[in-house]
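Why this split exists: single-chain examples teach little about how molecules sit against one another. For that reason, every record in the complexes split bundles all components of an assembly together and asks for one structure covering all of them. Below is a record exactly as it appears in the raw files.
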Amino acid sequence: DPAVRPKDEL
Amino acid sequence: MNIFRFLGDLSHLASIFILLHKIQTTRSCRGISFRTQALYVVVFIARYLDLFFRYVSLYNSAMKLFFIASSCYILYLMKIRYRPTHDPSIDTFRVEYLLAPCLILALIFNYKFNFAEVLWSFSIWLEAVAILPQLFMLQRTGEAENITTHYLAALGAYRALYIPNWIYRYFTEGLVDPIAVTAGIVQTGLYLDFFYVYFTKVLQGQKFELPA
């Protein structure tokens, strides 16, 4: 899987 | 959660309370751009749609709900409750010029080409530039009430504080989010002129006035 963003930021 | 992020989120919360306080106490939304506030509603709804399919934490969900609800409430205050105090003739920035490029950026730069991720990217780019109608209005009037400048300072500080958060996360967790970082730097950059006047005038006890 390519880059994944942190899902915990607002 | 590191201290920079937490302070950033607190600053964002504070900015909304300052804005609500300004509108309620002066019973007026003079000096506030409706267009910018409407763009924030779009930003929050586009970004926080994941409330329906992803649970991160109570903190995360509560903040998302708060930002959606408060931004809608501000629109209500501006458009209905205090409508006569809003002067559309100085709030004229063309938001199409922001929406279209942000949509294109989102279609090009995203972490996965699906509806939710493109919408997330769109909201990140749009948030970066959503303050432009407000800054444009400030530029036109050349001055602002102190309380309005405190609102803008807290709002600008929020994304600025996310920058050390991203640096911290890079070193501690190896996380990099190039889309949010790029947009966050642009967003903070747009505030630089404002911050300069805020620090050199408002915090020294003078009125916020732009040089003619």
